[in-house]
Write a structure and sequence with these properties.
The structure holds two protein chains of two kinds. By secondary structure, chain A is mainly alpha-helical. Chain A has two domains: about 150 residues, no CATH class; about 230 residues, MetI-like fold (Orthogonal Bundle). Chain B is globular and about 55 Å long. Classes of the chains: A mainly alpha, B alpha/beta.
């Protein structure tokens, strides 16, 4: 091969390498940036007075005097709105029955839209669910609801071959000729005075319990549950995994039995996580009965089984990478095998073992399928340490799925979902980072 | 046929009496009082890797307190033989032996031999310096601690004594708590010698101890071997024939697993009996 060809090959190889790294970086950005942008929005956002009222009533947070002042200021404008509603209701009563019928149904949807925007109106019956006690807590949601209040969404089915089209009809036009027509421009113009948006930092999102299944409040129960499950899994899997790895590398004789064990371990690592979930339900809960129903204990055990192969492999690699000469040196000094393992091999393999362990910890924190049947519930409060043997817990991974697919008001609380995703990514990232730091520290100590 | 270093052919019964015999020594080397008894005795001793016979029917006495060098071309079985003496070959699953290898009259491969106790008495220094990734102090104290010594003061004494014996004390006495991997290669190798001496062995096996070192560090190790001669039975495997002639009293020449010649060093290098030995030491093959 001549020099020219070699150079061209070298360059093109470099180009392909850099190209693939760039593609990976872009893909990472595409994934991470929306997560960060939307997730941060769960903590930093423009909150309305409804948010502050909710915090005060549900969590006892906030300054009472200041809040009363703000409520009074907003109340001035709200009273105007209420007066307009009362005026129209009186007008409605005076109408002849056919016209009254027509307006009454239209008025009902106006009133509902207004309730959604600014909270319960005078004359509403007491709300059963907490979510109906407050209007929109976030300004961008308030603007959305304002649009719903101003315009009625309708569907156009005129073309039978095409999909129905959505179009908007101004409610002001529908109420042309009545006293209610004034209310629409009024609310549109004075929305800021009614809702009093303010830049809000809601750190409680990470430390508060949720209220009314995540409509309000924070995600602490999920965060805590995730930690409980992941750490519980490690408590079982880490010691077992390291012992198994020591057995494989130091004690097992190469033979049919060992190679069977090894391939069983590899197979176990490739089993889909949902299978582990079902196994956990069938074995730990139904057969062994470690708990009556779903519990943190059962979930931890299931996760432990799932991450065990990874820990074994990582520990095995770490032990095998310890220089043979250390072992020889120790044995030649009259050390027993056990002593050699405990005082020389395991300490030298520790960085690798810990890295494998923490990566598995991250995986345990992020897995959804194994805990669906064994540990996770969609809504719940943070459980105490004593309850881990009997109580299920909410957990980030499962609740992200739940909020995205099964929650009855999923569209209203996208910010909570993104906040959970960011929290989970953050936790996993933090764990990996701490693994890298720990590893660096131990390696430095070993290298002198 | 039982071979001894002075080239005499002795029957197996005679070995007990060899303590009193006069043996040939180079004139500049002093006879060691109390030395010269057979310390490691091989009788028809063979080592196999699976089916392959790496060391073939060796019969030889290694004499106590003297330095015995083992030379031979690569793959001749000299390291295998050395490592068989403290049973480091146990680490290789396919390795097994036939015949007898006696240490102080006891079979090293006997059914009831405790290889851990054996290795305490027969220390080894390896080709590549292999200190543990611990402090210098902990490296030396590793062996004594294993054998139940926990008193800090006594340990400190042992560490100092061992480092002095290994001629390393002056260089490291002010940084005993520093990691041993920070030492130079030559210092690391002397540290390994000191670590081995700390468990007070009777025999010191050196497996090409200078092959990874520069000439200056090599000279220091060779000086060290001279210092230790007379206190320990030393066996050294080396590729370097000058080194063998400089440091050893007796030399074994292995070729393809066979112990071809075993004689006092001066004799083997100046007047080899075997044609093969002559060809090797004159560099006709290597």
């Amino acid at each position: 091969m001549n020099v020219g060809t070699r150079k061209i090959l070298n360059r093109s190889f470099t180009a392909v390498g850099i190209g693939s790294i760039v593609v990976m970086g872009i893909a990472l950005l595409i994934v991470i940036v929306p997560i960060i942008y939307n997730g941060v929005g769960a903590v930093f956002f423009t909150g309305t007075i409804e948010h502050r009222n909710m915090l005060y009533n549900e969590f006892g947070e906030g300054d009472e005097a200041e809040l009363a002042k703000q409520n009074a200021a907003a109340g001035v404008y709200r009273k105007e709105v209420y007066a307009m509603l009362a005026g129209f209701e009186a007008e409605l009563e005076a109408m002849e029955s056919e016209r009254q019928q027509e307006f009454r149904s239209k008025y009902g949807s106006v009133r509902n839209a207004l309730t959604a925007l600014m909270g319960p109106l005078p004359g509403d019956t007491g709300a059963m669910l907490t979510r109906f006690k407050y209007g929109q807590t976030r300004w961008e949601k308030a603007e959305e609801k304002l649009h719903e209040f101003l315009y009625e969404a309708k569907w156009d089915y005129s073309d039978p071959d095409a999909m129905a089209k959505e179009y908007y009809v101004s409610r002001a036009a529908e109420f042309e000729g009545t006293s209610l027509v004034k209310i629409f421009p009024y609310v549109e113009k004075h929305l800021e005075e009614i809702m009093r948006p303010e830049f809000t930092i809601y750190l409680g999102f990470l430390t508060d319990s949720s209220v009314d299944s995540h409509i309000f409040g924070g995600i602490w129960p999920e965060i805590q549950g995730t930690f409980f499950l992941a750490i519980g899994a490690m408590l079982f899997a880490f010691p077992l995994g390291v012992i198994a790895a020591v057995y494989f590398t130091e004690y097992a004789r190469e033979g049919l039995f060992t190679s069977m064990l090894r391939s069983a371990n590899s197979t176990l690592a490739g089993v889909p996580s949902i299978v582990f979930g079902l196994f956990g339900l069938a074995f730990f809960i139904n057969t062994l009965g470690v708990s009556e129903s779903k519990s943190v204990l059962a979930g931890s055990l299931t996760l432990a089984i799932m991450i065990l192969p990874t820990i074994i492999r990582a520990a095995e690699e770490a032990i095998l990478s310890v220089p043979r000469t250390y072992k020889e040196a120790s044995l030649s000094l009259g050390s027993t095998k056990w002593n050699t393992i405990m005082t020389v091999i395991l300490p030298a393999a520790l960085p690798g073992i810990i890295t494998g362990g923490v990566i598995s910890l991250g995986r345990a924190a992020g897995e959804t399928a194994p805990i669906i049947f064994t540990a996770a519930v969609s809504v719940g409060s943070a459980i105490g340490l004593a309850d881990v043997f009997s109580s299920p817990t909410p957990a980030l991974s499962w609740n992200i799925y739940n909020l995205a697919s099964e929650h009855e008001a999923a569209a209203e609380i996208r910010h909570v979902q993104y906040g959970m995703v960011l929290a989970l990514v953050g936790i996993v990232l933090l764990l990996n980072l701490s693994a890298i730091l720990l590893r660096a520290r131990i390696s430095k100590k070993l290298k002198g | 046929m039982q071979m001894t270093a002075d080239g005499r052919i002795t029957s197996q019964k005679d070995t007990a009496k060899t303590a009193s015999r006069d043996i040939y020594l180079p004139s500049e080397r002093k006879t060691i009082a109390g030395g010269g008894t057979p310390h490691v005795v091989a009788k028809d001793f063979s080592i196999y890797y699976g089916e392959f016979e790496a060391v073939k029917k060796v019969n030889a006495d290694v004499l106590s307190k003297y330095v015995t060098a083992i030379i031979g071309p690569s793959g001749c079985g000299k390291s295998t033989y050395l490592r068989a003496i403290n049973r480091m070959n146990d680490l290789i699953p396919s390795c097994h032996t036939t015949g007898a290898l006696l240490f102080d009259g006891e079979d090293i491969y006997g059914k009831f031999t405790d290889e851990v106790l054996l290795r305490k008495k027969i220390g080894m220094v390896f080709q590549k310096p292999n200190p543990f990734p611990k402090s210098i102090f902990d490296n030396i104290a590793y062996g004594p601690r294993l054998h139940g010594m926990n008193d800090r003061k006594q340990l400190a004494e042992i560490v100092e004594r061992s480092l002095r014996k290994a001629a390393l004390w002056d260089e490291v006495s002010d940084r005993l708590d520093k990691n041993a991997l920070g030492l130079s290669g030559g210092q690391q190798q002397r540290l390994c010698v000191a670590r081995t001496l700390a468990v007070e062995p009777e025999i010191l096996l050196l497996d090409e101890p200078t092959s990874a070192l520069d000439p200056k560090a090599t000279a220091k190790i060779e000086d060290l071997i001279q210092e230790l001669r007379g206190s320990y039975t030393i066996m050294i495997v080396t590729h370097n024939m000058q080194q063998a002639s400089r440091v050893s009293d007796y030399t074994m020449f292995f070729y393809e697993g066979v112990l071809v010649e075993y004689a006092p060093t001066a004799q083997l290098f100046t007047n080899p009996k075997d044609r093969m030995t002559e060809d090797y030491i004159t560099g006709r093959f290597s």
